[in-house]
Amino acid sequence: MIALDGKVALVTGSGRGIGRAIALKLAAAGASVMINDLDAGPSHESADLITAAGAQSGQLAGDLTQPGFPEALVNATVERFGRLDIIVNNAGYTWDNVIQKTTDEQFQSMLDIHVVAPFRVLRAASRFIREWAKAEAAEGRRVVRKVVNITSIAATDGGPGQAGYASGKAAVIGLTRTLAKEWGRYNVNVNCVGFGLIETRLIQPITDRPATIAVHGRDIPVGVQPKTLEAVKTLSPLGRAGSVEEAAGPVLFFCSDLSDFVTGEVLMCSGGMHF
Fold first, then answer.
1. Owning domain of residue 107
2. Contact predicate 161/105, CB 8 Å
3. d(CA 190, CA 180)
4. Number of Cβ atoms within 10 Å of the Cβ of 30
């Protein structure tokens, strides 16, 4: 049994999909969870689900790509719960196009959400983490904290039409490995989980009326052509996409004491798929 009793987790992008599944798994293991999503409705829904299951929750909806918001989110988490033990940088989305059709705005948006926002969250948390670790060391205690950054198979294998997304997801691996070296002295494990094809709204089959997500006042098209979706599934030895609950499992491992001697690693949760 994985026990996270007394731990406090911050999970970005946890109003829906994989992020919500991660938040629910952490809460089921005993953690108190701070929910964040771009949209207030889903953010409140996830927090309510956690509370209904008997765990403690908080929520702060807002845009992680706004320079001051990541720090405000970290501060709100510490104010709400008095501590911060687990950070899962999960928020993200895809905005795909072949490179000649990718605008500067499109490319920068992918960097902003996938690596700049996690950087700002971790920078804001560093003040607390360093102070707490020094105080704990002075008392002769060792408290292990966890950071899990979410990456993608696109970061390691590339993805056609995903110059921006793949670049942002590759960059967060570099951030992860750097922080693993910087924060080891503070007893913080910093790792990555990379996803392949997971059943979320971002990979729904495209129909005559393509689905969109609203980001910064824009309707960003999402989804995959049905034929492409089936072809991609054949690249997986398991022959299927993963569920959000399956995606949350490796994250839970990295948040638990089972991973106390694992840091700076990338664990791919892709069903064995490679592009």
1. 8-201+240-269
2. no
3. 5
4. 16
Place of tokens 């996938």: 114
Give me the active site residues, please: 165
Cα–Cα distances in angstroms (integers) from residue 178 to residues 174, 182, 218, 269, in the given order? 6, 6, 34, 22
What residues contact residue 163 under an 8 Å CB cut-off, 6+ apart?
99, 102, 107
pLDDT average per 10 residues of sequence, the chain (275 residues)? 96 97 98 97 98 97 98 98 98 93 96 98 98 98 98 93 96 98 98 92 66 77 71 82 95 98 97 81
Other beta carbons within 10 angstroms of residue 262's beta carbon come to 14
Beta strand 188-195 with 145-152 is parallel
Please give the model's pTM, rounded to 2 decimal places. 0.93
Which DSSP string corresponds to 109-152?
HHHIIIIIHHHHHHHHHHHHHHHHHHHHHHTT----EEEEEEEE
Query: How many Cα neighbours within 13 Å face the side chain of 9?
Result: 36
DSSP state of 82: S
Q: Is residue 228 part of a domain?
A: no
| CATH number assigned to the domain comprising residue 124 | 3.40.50.720
Q: Using alpha carbons only, what angle is made at residue 203 by residues 40 and 196, rounded to the nearest 5 degrees? A: 105
Based on the structure, what is the number of domains in the chain? 1
